[in-house]
Model the fold of this input.
Amino acid sequence: MPSNAEYEPSASDIARNQVALFESSNGTEGNTISGRPVVILTMRGKRTAKIRKTPVMRVEDAGRYALVASLGGAPRHPAWYHNVVSHPRVTLQDGPRRGEYLAHEAEGQERDEWWKRAVEAFPEYAEYQRSTDRVIPVLVLEPVTH
Ligand code: F42
Done:
């Protein structure tokens, strides 16, 4: 993803501070929440085209990752979900390792498989889904090799 755009930190203090700690320590600090592993997603803003970054829980299988747009069970999707849908080429940092990925929204059986992995990685996702009528979207990241 081109990095010549301006970085606009998250409006969420927690998210902004976690991204800063994670990146300043090259993924050795700020890499968990509630004792569960966190990764950092970098994407382009849907409206502003600015560089946006947000922590998400680490949900990984064979080099692919899932992004769960839970927003704590809120009735709306997080802004980062709209960004990734609009600009599916993203960067994800897992510990010290950064990689380029292409995102797609999981549906049907694929979503069921990733939702199971997600709840295993972060059981609170199940609680979030019970607390909202919104179907929490799951975006799957496939590694980009070129
Ligand atoms: N949120 C999740 O949804 N899933 C997770 O797995 C998750 C894990 C997690 C772990 C650690 C942690 O500290 C936070 C975690 N969060 C998780 C919370 C997450 O990091 C976000 O804070 C939360 O999801 C809300 O994100 P948001 O994308 O809605 O960002 C808000 C706070 C924000 O910055 N809003 C900006 C604003 O000005 O209000 C706009 C941001 C933006 O991207 N704007 C776009 C643009 O073009 O620049 C336009 C977006 C649009 O809708 O058009």
Notes: The chain has four helices and eight strands.
